[in-house]
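Below is a filled-in request sheet from our internal design queue. Each sheet records the structural input a requester submitted and the sequence that came back. We keep these sheets so that new team members can see what a complete request looks like end to end.

REQUESTER: design group, bay 2
PRIORITY: normal
MODE: inverse folding
CHAIN LENGTH: 89
BACKBONE (tokenized):
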């Protein structure tokens, strides 16, 4: 599934236009980004949790040249599925 299919599903389920459904999906996704960036965590009961995790600096390899490179410390977003979501699968 991609965003286009999601927008179509939302439009069909809510009987709103595709333009309005796309706007709703975009607002939802932007809200998720803002909340996770600000607080580091967003928990949607029954669905799952988005959480920011820190990564350590490490060394890696450039696959084209084989040369060793330094990869700086950073952050990544992880998602852990909730109980109800896991059951649905």
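RETURNED SEQUENCE:
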């Amino acid at each position: 599934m991609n965003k286009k299919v999601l927008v179509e599903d939302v439009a069909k389920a809510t009987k709103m236009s595709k333009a309005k459904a796309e706007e709703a999906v975009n607002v939802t996704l932007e809200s998720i980004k803002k909340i996770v960036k600000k607080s580091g965590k967003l928990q949607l009961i029954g669905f799952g949790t988005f959480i920011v995790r820190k990564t350590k600096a490490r060394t890696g390899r450039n696959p084209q040249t084989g040369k060793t490179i330094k990869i700086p410390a950073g952050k990544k977003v992880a998602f852990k599925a909730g109980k109800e979501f896991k059951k649905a699968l």
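SHEET NOTES:
- The longest strand covers residues 48-55.
- The chain is about 45% helix and 30% strand.
FILED BY: M.R.
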